[in-house]
Design goal:
This protein has a 4-stranded antiparallel beta sheet with strand order 2-3-1-4. The chain is an alpha+beta fold. It starts with 18 loop residues before the first helix and ends in a 32-residue tail after the last strand. About 30% of the residues lie in helices and about 15% in strands. β2 (about 105-110) and β3 (about 115-125) form a beta hairpin.
């Protein structure tokens, strides 16, 4: 099995989240473009408090970023696959760096079980996927074997409903422009 990857030195220790923090997270997972004003109104805190809490969640590494959900097929990435890899023991960090550089790599996980790494990739077509597996992945010296599982259909799951309701379902690039916490 590959070596474990621990928490980096700069990451602060995890703090317990209260109900307001969890409501803010749920709301931003549902609508990453929500304004500070709407977050504050929905969780019943001041805009300054909502702004400070969101920044703390970002600084603490709880919120890792804001992104859009993409229909990969409509975006020209019609072939998707989960690829399992068996790797040389204690090579996780080296392999992870090489996998992150792969075109179309969407998710990388060190796992337990019959294989060591689970990799999700999106490519324009099966020919490109084949080249990625046979040429790029299998040329990494620390990769002992691969198994490719084609994805026929994907469904993104929405966050579990909770106390915050009536929010849109779009996920976008971040907080909206009306977010001056002092107003």
């Amino acid at each position: 099995m590959a070596e474990g990857g621990g928490r980096t030195e700069q990451t602060p220790p995890a703090r317990p989240l209260d109900a307001i923090d969890r409501d803010i997270l749920r709301m931003l997972q549902t609508d990453g473009r929500a304004s500070i004003r709407s977050v504050a109104e929905r969780v019943h805190v001041s805009r300054a408090n909502a702004y400070a809490r969101i920044n703390r969640l970002i600084d603490d590494g709880v919120i890792r970023g804001f992104s859009a959900r993409v229909d990969h097929e409509r975006a020209g990435q019609g072939a998707s696959a989960y690829i399992t890899l068996k790797i040389v023991q204690n090579s996780w960090r080296t392999v992870r760096e090489q996998l992150q550089a792969l075109p179309g790599a969407a998710h990388i996980a060190l796992v337990s079980g019959d294989f060591d790494v689970l990799l999700l990739v999106h490519t324009p077509d099966n020919r490109t996927l084949r080249e990625l597996v046979l040429t790029r992945l299998q040329s990494i010296p620390e990769v002992l074997s691969t198994r490719t599982l084609l994805v026929f259909e994907e469904t993104d799951l929405e966050p579990v409903p909770g106390p915050v309701t009536g929010v849109g379902t779009g996920v976008g690039a971040g907080l909206a422009a009306d977010d001056d916490p002092l107003q």
